[in-house]
Amino acid sequence: MAKLTVVLGEYAHGRALLNGDVEVAGHAVEPVEVSPVIGAYRRMIRDLEFDVCELAPTSYLMALQAGVALTAIPVFLNRRFHHADVQCGASSGIRFPGDLAGKRIGVRAYTVTTGVWVRGILHDEYGVDLDTVKWVVDDEDHIEGRAPANVERVTDGRSLGALLRAGELDAALSGNAGTGRAGAPRAGWSAAEQPSGDEGPYPLFPDHEVLAADWYLRTGIYPLHSVIAIRRELVERDPGLPGALYAAFAESKRRQVEADPEWSALPRLGRQARGLGTDPIPYGLGANDRSVRALVRFSREQGLLDADFPAEPRQLFADGDYPDA
Hints:
Layout: E1 2-7, H1 15-18, E2 27-31, H2 38-47, E3 52-55, H3 57-65, E4 70-79, E5 86-88, E6 104-106, H4 113-126, E7 134-137, E8 151-153, H5 160-165, E9 171-173, E10 202-203, H6 208-219, E11 224-231, H7 232-237, H8 241-259, H9 267-276, H10 289-301
Parallel strand pairs: 1-2, 1-3, 6-7, 6-9, 7-8
Antiparallel strand pairs: 3-11, 4-11, 5-9, 5-10
């Protein structure tokens, strides 16, 4: 039986696959722990260090374009909306999305998938001219060379959160894409939560949940994260591997939903499921068609992918049978 080294973040719906309760036909899964899991993304893209590895979707698309010997299956272990992600500095004076023009906004790296979704929403929905914004980053991209001229790197070691509090940034993304951590992924990466209210940053969109639900209902776009990548060499040797791996992920998810239909183990996904009346993490090509196409379009428009990069989802994943699950 072939061994598969597998790196995933901590997902209740992936646990049965990692612990062997759900088998990948013809393969023995050997879990590899990397914390934070984002630290594994660069190792997979640059060194093909693992057999199967969770990746940021934008990083995966850029790796395809760069000719990295990877392929993937349409399993997206995490989904979230991004209207809540833009936090404005207490003295920035920003009140509306248009106020971001000409401002300095912090993001961990220009190519981070959350940043791609946020910029796409700001441009599509609110007409923000992204070229007028100075994007300030404190980490390198997994694949270098695609960041535009209006990107500035922090060189003095301060975090984006510290810069935002000092008034040297007008706004920044929150969480792992911005002020929720400091520097490159490593042990102890997460930073303390930033103060809110009069003494700290405030959200650009206070009614973000309403706006996110409206956007989803109008567009059908449900921002995807955490795609499952596979070393292409393994698929060339065993063309049945992608289908077997997809089936195992789908069964692992099915068991988790059966045991925890309200998603109490992952309350954010539970809230999204209730708010949208839909599966919070749909797998498959059909269920993710609009979201994949939107991510490709945003990535093209932001200069991360070439204009002729394919948007057809079937061209972006390994050959296989991927019924919606």
